[in-house]
Amino acid sequence: MEFRPCIDIHNGKVKQIVGGSLKDAGDQAAENFVAEQDAAYFAKLYQKEGIKGGHIILLNPVSSEYYKATREQAEHALRAYPGGLQIGGGVTAENAKEFLDAGASHVIVTSYVFNYDNLKRLNAAVGRGRLVLDLSCRKKEDTYYIVTDRWQEFTDEEVSTVLLDELSSYCDEFLIHAVDVEGKAKGIEKELVKMLGEWGKIPVTYAGGVGSFEDLLELKKLGNNRLNVTIGSALDLFGGPMAYDKVLQYMKKE
To answer: What's the distance, Cα to Cα, between the start and end of the chain in Å?
Structure first.
């Protein structure tokens, strides 16, 4: 299990938000924390510790008046830590290379790939080895469904081992936010974690609900020590109770 840091950018600022609260209308979100530092500060912090595979997420759509400021923040972070961070949010086959050229190790895509022609074009543009598929999901009627458009829209795609098998040939990793618990730091989605841990064929990063070292231990056990983990709102970097240094020490013991 590896620690995968995050830099979420909304309205031009590094934030931790409650995932299910994000709304494009009015560029609104319930905020847990708004950083005084810019995105490059956090990128350099992760670089100092040699932590790779973290993700930058642009939480504004291209149509937003804040998109330019959000993208500028993201690109500052990529330049600060070239090759160390992944990036997602509005990535297409047409612009993916721009993010890679700016310093991203991988690009992250969600709804765009459920048109398989798009997925094939993206593979042709960047290659399987630099592509991460975001299968972030929410629970409805005891089933986890993939959500798109910055977690606002349900799809008919169920997160299952069948889907993971189908899509894994197109990508290097999966990133999965458990959106219903994202930003709440009140525990992980156990059923989802168990299913992902039982699959374990390519790297999977789980994000959502981690609020304590007990949650990390549970994630390790239920995920068969196969899942990487993102901690956002619970980290002291973002105003939470879990000390960043202690998290790094904990991960080194694993």
So the answer is: 7
- Within 13 Å of residue 47, how many CA atoms lie on the same side as its CB? 16
Residues of the chain scoring pLDDT < 50 = none
Contacts 24+ apart (CB under 8 A), 234-240: 234/185, 234/210, 237/42, 237/45, 238/16, 238/32, 238/33, 238/35, 239/16, 239/32, 239/33, 240/33, 240/185, 240/211
> With b meaning 16 or more CB within 10 Å and e meaning fewer, what string describes 219-243?
bbebbeebbbbbbbbbbebbebebe
Give percent of the chain with pLDDT exceeding 70. Answer: 92
Which residue carries 């409650």 as its tokens? 18
pLDDT, tens digit (0-9, with 9 covering 90-100), for 76-89? 999 999 999 999 99
Amino acid (one-letter) located at 251 = M
Question: How crowded is the C-beta side of 77, counted as CA atoms within 13 Å?
Answer: 35
The predicted pLDDT at position 15 comes to: 86
CA distance linking residue 85 with residue 83, whole number of Å: 6
pLDDT digits (tens, 9 = 90+) for 116-170: 888 889 989 999 999 999 998 999 989 999 988 767 788 888 999 999 999 999 9
Let me know how long the chain is: 254
pLDDT at 93: 92
Rounded CA-CA distance 51/44 in Å is 10
- Helix residue ranges per DSSP H, the chain: 39-48, 67-80, 96-101, 116-126, 161-168, 190-199, 213-222, 244-253
Token digits of residue 61: 């759509």
The two three-digit tokens of residue 151, written as one number: 């977690």
Cα-flanking dihedrals φ and ψ of residue 196, to 5°?
-65, -40
